[in-house]
């Protein structure tokens, strides 16, 4: 992508994240105003004030640290000097338990309402997904996170091309994404600690259950078994890798380009592409590609690389996976988002899982994901934004000091014991968890930056995702 386009998509991503935070804080703010509470500060971000305005006793501001946001509500009393100040709280009338609970929960409710609206849009326009769970490729060898080449888990277990996955550890699988998510967040192990999963398949119409022992793979160190879904051989092949300083790279071909024609001949098959390039390697070939919805002509003249005998362009391609446009209703979509969050949180705390805190994303990772989705198109951006808002709602309701769930926990404990909790205790807990939260953000952002660097090609991927993951890459690299 060109620099101006990158800036454009990053700006869209930052706006989407900021707007989601705004929606969350707006829920708190409107609930507080409706309950006649004082809201003296409405901040997007933490730390020193950058700019803003004052209206009806509230300081609406953009703050320095873009790690979230908050509405300062002195009468909640939980944050003490961190929000609003102890003296300000003492001069204001106390509020009821119902006030505290309603104001605290409304941020999450507003995020869910926003996610529901976005899901309504997706219900109307539909979304292309890899709906099939049919296996289209099985790697005989894979490279694990230690850099060792080992037998592919699926191949070793006896899975075959054409098998259709219908369950994983007894749970029904409705799409390839659901299968991948369930596999990554799996917690089952053998007695000796090896990851294990039971996969239900249909083979020639007959159900079977096969035990597979996943390998820990990729730089993310997650469970994989070395399979890919079926590819759409009727679709135009996609450029998946470019070799630097080779003709395709120099001519301006981009990863993600759809190869439509060679000269005026439509690319109708893998064999045609190979044959045409082999028989016309001594001249410039006009390659027609589709990029960002528009056709573009890229003239490329092959060359013979030192140490080789055949002319090459220096790009690798594959066929896109078979997709299907689905029109899931909002409730089904939101329940799917909740299930993703549930699996992730459960895997984080389960000793049998391989999911670690390092696999989570902070603000940098979220913006990177939104940027990627913005490049993909409006539909994917809306879907990811809905997912983020459901995650924000659930995460903020966890009973952790600093989060909304922490406010609700303090209010409930006070109600049960019949007296307010000591302010000093709450302030100390809040302060400690603010530091923990900031430490968490810094920690995951370190890994987020690594992902951004690898995607941008700045940091080299040391561990291949799978050896031979794209079955046409080596054989067809022209």
Gist?
The protein is α+β, with helices and mostly antiparallel strands.
Write the layout of secondary structure elements.
Blueprint: H1 3-34, E1 41-55, E2 58-72, H2 86-90, H3 97-125, E3 127-129, E4 135-138, E5 141-143, E6 149-151, H4 153-157, E7 164-168, E8 171-172, H5 176-184, E9 197-203, E10 206-212, E11 215-217, E12 222-224, E13 227-229, E14 238-242, H6 247-251, E15 258-262, E16 265-266, H7 270-279, E17 285-291, E18 294-300, E19 315-318, E20 324-326, H8 330-349, H9 363-376, H10 378-396, H11 404-417, H12 423-456, H13 473-476
Antiparallel strand pairs: 1-2, 3-20, 4-13, 5-6, 7-8, 7-9, 9-10, 11-12, 14-19, 15-16, 15-17, 17-18
Helix pairs in contact: 1-3, 1-9, 1-10, 3-8, 3-10, 3-11, 8-10, 9-10, 9-12
Describe the model.
The protein has a four-stranded antiparallel beta sheet. It has about 475 residues and is an alpha+beta fold. The radius of gyration is 26 Å and the shape is globular. The protein has helices spanning about 5-35, 85-90, 95-125, 155, 175-185, 245-250, 270-280, 330-350, 365-375, 380-395, 405-415, 425-455, 475, and strands spanning about 40-55, 60-70, 125-130, 135-140, 140-145, 150, 165-170, 170, 195-205, 205-210, 215, 220-225, 225-230, 240, 260, 265, 285-290, 295-300, 315-320, 325. Mean pLDDT is about 85; it is low at about 460-478. The two termini are about 25 Å apart. A hairpin with a 2-residue loop joins strand 15 (about 260) and strand 16.
């Amino acid at each position: 992508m060109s620099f101006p386009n990158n800036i454009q998509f990053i700006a869209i991503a930052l706006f989407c994240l900021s707007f989601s935070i705004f929606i969350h804080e707006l829920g708190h703010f409107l609930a507080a105003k409706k309950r006649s509470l004082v809201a003296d500060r409405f901040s997007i971000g933490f730390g020193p004030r950058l700019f803003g305005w004052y209206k009806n006793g509230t300081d609406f501001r953009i703050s320095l640290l873009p790690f979230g946001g908050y509405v300062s509500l002195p009468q909640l009393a939980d944050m003490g000097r961190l929000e609003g100040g102890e003296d300000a709280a003492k001069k204001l009338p106390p509020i009821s338990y119902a006030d505290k609970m309603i104001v605290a929960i409304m941020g999450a409710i507003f995020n869910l309402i926003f996610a529901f609206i976005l899901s309504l849009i997706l219900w109307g326009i539909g979304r292309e997904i890899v709906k099939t769970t049919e296996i289209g490729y099985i790697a005989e060898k894979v490279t694990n996170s230690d850099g060792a080449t080992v037998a592919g888990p699926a191949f070793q277990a006896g899975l075959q091309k054409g098998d259709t996955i219908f369950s994983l550890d007894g749970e029904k699988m409705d799409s390839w994404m659901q299968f991948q998510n369930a596999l990554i967040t799996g917690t089952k192990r053998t007695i000796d600690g090896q990851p294990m999963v039971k996969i239900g398949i249909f083979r020639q119409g007959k159900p079977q259950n096969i035990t597979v022992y996943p390998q820990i793979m990729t730089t993310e160190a997650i469970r994989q078994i070395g399979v890919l879904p079926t590819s759409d051989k009727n679709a135009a092949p996609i450029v998946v890798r470019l070799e630097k300083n080779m003709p395709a790279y120099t001519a301006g071909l981009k990863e993600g380009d759809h190869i439509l024609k060679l000269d005026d001949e439509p690319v109708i098959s893998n064999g045609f592409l190979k044959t045409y390039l082999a028989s016309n390697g001594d001249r410039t070939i006009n390659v027609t590609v589709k990029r960002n919805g528009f056709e573009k002509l890229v003239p490329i003249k092959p060359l013979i690389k030192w140490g080789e005998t055949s002319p090459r362009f220096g790009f690798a391609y594959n066929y896109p996976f078979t997709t299907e446009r689905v029109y899931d209703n909002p409730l089904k979509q939101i329940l799917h988002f909740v299930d993703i969050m549930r699996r992730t949180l459960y895997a984080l705390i389960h000793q049998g899982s391989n999911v670690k805190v390092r696999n989570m994303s902070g603000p940098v990772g979220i913006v990177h994901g939104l940027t990627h989705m913005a490049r993909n198109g409006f539909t994917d951006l809306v879907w990811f934004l809905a997912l983020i808002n459901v995650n924000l709602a659930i995460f903020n309701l966890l009973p952790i000091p600093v989060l909304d769930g922490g406010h609700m926990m303090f209010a409930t404990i006070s109600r049960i014991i019949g007296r307010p909790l000591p302010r000093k205790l709450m302030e100390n807990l809040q302060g400690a968890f603010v530091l923990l939260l900031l430490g968490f953000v810094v920690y995951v952002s370190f890994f987020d930056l690594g992902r951004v660097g690898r995607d941008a090609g700045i940091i080299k991927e040391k561990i291949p995702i799978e050896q031979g993951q794209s079955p046409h890459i080596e054989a067809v690299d022209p």
